[in-house]
Amino acid sequence: MPRLIVVSNRVADIHSTGSASSGGLAMAMAGALKEEGGVWLGWSGNATDNGDGEPEFSTRDNVTLARIDLSRQHVEEYYNGYANRTLWPLFHHRTDLTAYEQSFRDSYLDVNRTFARAIRSFVKPDDVIWVQDYHLIPLGRELRALGVDNRIGFFLHIPWPARELFVTLPQHADLVWSLFGYDLVGFQTDKDLAAFRDYFHTELNAHPNEEGLIDMFGRRLLAKSYPISINPSEMVDLSQTEEASSSYRRIRKVNAGRKILLGVDRIDYSKGLLHKFAAYNRFLEEFPDRRGTATLLQIGQPSRDLVAEYQDLGEDLIAEAGRINGRFGRLDWTPLSYHTQSYGRDALAGIYRAAHACLVTPLRDGMNLVAKEFVAAQDPDDPGVLLLSRFAGAAEQMTEALLINPHDKEQCADAIAQALDMPRAERIERWKALDETISRSSLSAWKEQFMTDLRNLGDVNTPPSGNVFAF
Length: 471
Ligand code: GDG
Fold this sequence. Notes:
Elements: E1 4-10, H1 24-36, E2 38-48, E3 56-60, E4 63-71, H2 72-91, H3 102-120, E5 128-132, H4 139-145, E6 151-155, H5 163-166, H6 172-178, E7 184-187, H7 190-204, E8 213-216, E9 219-225, H8 232-239, H9 242-254, E10 259-266, H10 273-286, E11 294-301, H11 308-328, E12 336-339, H12 345-354, E13 357-360, H13 369-376, E14 385-389, E15 402-404, H14 409-421, H15 424-440, H16 443-455
Parallel strand pairs: 1-2, 1-5, 2-4, 5-6, 6-7, 7-9, 10-11, 10-13, 11-12, 13-14, 14-15
Antiparallel strand pairs: 3-4, 8-9
The protein binds GDP-alpha-D-glucose.
GDP-alpha-D-glucose (GDG) binds at residues 21, 23-25, 157-158, 228, 264, 266, 299, 301, 342-345, 348, 365-370, 373, 393.
């Protein structure tokens, strides 16, 4: 039976699954690998003096994890550099934070070549390779250069940028060219797909056909959107665990007589956390009679704290939370409860269920799974309200949420008031529609759809003789 080879920057330790802290995506990849049997390759998380590029394998049942150490220089320039200081900010439209360093790009290509050589050492002719995310865009091309002609797909978890911003990247055309190493490229939303197609129309005078097929560089690429999701039934099960009930009870008890507004985000400038705090501040200013009737509970998951912008944001958030509490707080009420502690997924399910509203305010986001998890964890008879930024990929599907513009403090403040006042019948009606949407397009369906398309492409990419896709 053909194996599935999943490749991503990091590999989750799925050999200890059941671990409540594993994220939804890790669980999905684990599920796919267990179903089909295969290998998951990525960086071990270790930075060594040299980073020899040799994977360390560990196998349990039909799944092998292959982890590669990287050198300190590569971690600095590839991971902290090109991935997190070049592509991440640029693709999230933060050109003001984007570093355009040649050394970052060199290391990025080096690491992609290292991954390609590692895969080349164990790939079998029938294996299907599925590459994840912006850290590994050139991996397909590097694999082709080593003669790997297996079926290879790529999924981008973050948004594809608008052409006017994307072209600020030196060698942007090379990055696009490298995508032609893949047979199938998946985006989160139709908007991302449209931005990708715009690049071809305008920069390359090339015109993808109706189905999304693009013929260039002697190869054919299918580009399509596959909105990622969660498995709602898993969230429902989690929300009924003992751990979930206990976190539910604790939060409701501490906030007895008050409504709970919830935020759950990685600490990242793309998530609009400072905008959320500003909107809440505006809400407290605009509705003095509401003070003391609700609390904003914000969970911030620390991330990328070796990058200066992330450290600065962490400090700004603590300062801003302090300002709001100092200004509005009372002996018996803390308006904003902000913590950076991580919770198990079961405890998190209880926190979602305890909230009366969830504020999801990214300035730009590939999808945003928190929005979907919140909906799935609700009590159908008394659901909370989702406030969702129109700039999250999830807003393309979740139209029954209260859609907000996080740059518009006044609109957000009004939406918070609307959520707190929303009659139960309307909450149920909106929630039902949202729940149907996420049940229709689950994470399993996402994976199945992508893999089916990848497998069914036909022999479109048999490299022409003469190897037009030359290096
Ligand atoms: C990227 C894209 C896209 C958060 N705090 C805790 C915790 N979390 C979990 C949430 C959720 C995940 O982290 C965050 O997922 P998002 O989708 O919101 O955001 P990114 O991390 O930026 O993910 C994004 C995603 O990839 C998938 O394609 O949707 O647009 O940026 O699952 O629950 N989990 C636990 N404890 C916490 O305290 N266990």
